[in-house]
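Question: Now follow the chain.
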Amino acid sequence: MKHTIKNIILLTLYCLLTNCSNDFLNQDITSDRFSLGNSNIYISPDWQSSNKQFKLSGVKTADYEIVSKPSWLNVGSLTGHISDSIAMVQCSATKKPEYSSVGVYMEFMTVKANGKNYKVPVGYLIEGKPIAQVSSSINLSMSNPTLSIMNTGPGILLWDIVSMPSWLAIDYSRIITNTLFIVQNNSCNLPLILTPPQNATGILNGTIVLTTNDSQHARIEISVTANLGTPQLSLNTNTVNFSGVEVSKNFSFGNYGNGILTWEFKDMPAWLTITPTSGVYNPYTSYNNITFTCNRSKLSPGMNTAYVTLKTNDSSHPTTSITVTAMAPGNNANIRAITGNVADAVFNKNTNTLYYVTSSPNKLIAYDVINRTIVNEIALGKAPTCLAISEDWSTAAVGHNGSLSAINLSSSTVTATYPLDYSVNNIAWCEKSWFCVTQNGGSFSGLHWFNTVDGTKYDETDTYSLDGKSITKKVPNQPYLIATRGTSSPSGFFAFSIATKSQKSYAHMDLSKFWFSEDGQYIYDQNSNIYRTTSSTGSTEKFNNTINAIGKISTSSTYLISYIYHSNNNLWIIQNDTYTYYGSPDATTSIYQVEDNDYTLVKKYSYDQLYQPAGQSTPLNVNAKYIFANSTGTELSVLCKSTTDNNWIIQFIPVK
């Protein structure tokens, strides 16, 4: 008979001892001279000679010699070779009168390999008259299906599986090896596992064929049925993102249907492994037992994206695409490190000059983005909080905690520093030498007007209009300011007249972060709304002006926008990838190009979110904070900040 199972599982000494009679020979195997081996050598004198297997502990490849063996054991050769930890030997048994009762009589043969002796168990089998009892048909349950085989006769039942349906397999993780020999009035519950093909649903039918040493039932056919029902795939997410230096991520999904869900992952790239790659989920179950592992040594520089296919037998979701991303440090050719912690940045499109202020060191930097060099550095007396520059790019003002610096950009000098009774949160140029500032901290405040030539100050009469995190910006080429509160709800939508230094209109609505179109005709907010600027500046309603959105910016993200730069008929947008709330860590961000007519997506741009500083072993996760396009619209300058410290870089990204 075949020995499919028995050839896969080499029986140990302990397995043989389990089902043997009490008449075994006891040999002393406690000597330090011997180690134990494993074997499936159990033989009846009524059987023809056949090949058997044995293993020696710790021996993978070696020549062996059988030094001694029981007198009843016949072998084809006393020498041989062990390959891949398995040795084959041809065996038969000579009848031994002392062994007459039903049972497995256990002895040992001594095998020598690599200069060491091993005790290998061998069994002399008296089969008796076993009687196999198996149901002629079974309906397999969806949870831990089993096949029950029983022996009711006075003998030892040996059995093997000749064939089974392709959608059924033995679950070797649950098999108990000592049930391969079934003594009288005992049974074996063979653990099975359903392995239906992809897209299989409904009822599966098939046949299991057994062979046994029961002379009346040498071949047994069993009809098997499994009802797969109606599985339903349930996914919480179809994205896996390896951030920073992560190498493994857990992934989960469930089966919320009344049926067996079969699943398998396909199309993995070389840098990704998934464990396990396939499986079966019972009805109404969910697991978190799948591990995605990233081999970072196989990643290409920059963003690596793979689309893994999850195949299931859910008829509504036969295939689902899982997007897997992993970032590797680039070659830094298009990256420049910034010295200091950037507090604010503005861009002169006409000269392709990027202006930014930093703390540690406290400086205002003028940077040529075409030649990628610093044009000018102006030392600041204190750490900056914000920056504003006049429309003719001749005058700048820098806010600090408790002071304001006036700067002549033509001479690259700080012309004056004015003490303040508050810290500056935000600053905007108004006209000539006048700037407006909002203060940081406090529940309410008004708008502060400041002349940086003679130090003249003017405070708005309504000291309750703004709060301690308000933002104000000048409308490009128009004599108006737009302002909004930062911590109040609603944030409010204010318009101020620069000529009269007074509030012109107010809408009781949320605006929060906002940006202007290049010509100042439109306002874009962090929620992707588009407003006509004149809806605010053209009104004199100070109680509750009506301002309606006239459109919506369309990207592939629904989360908050963190920065917009408008130039050459394109909006360059930095947008969060996830939901954020007050006090939450920075979200990862993506860059989008949107055309400025219908405000539809043109392209999504990738940037290096993992930066490897020179001389540092651990790379840094970075997020885009500011984005600008050069005068011809052919290259982007993206200022990025580390998510863990105050390191900043500039990335230069070609527009394609």
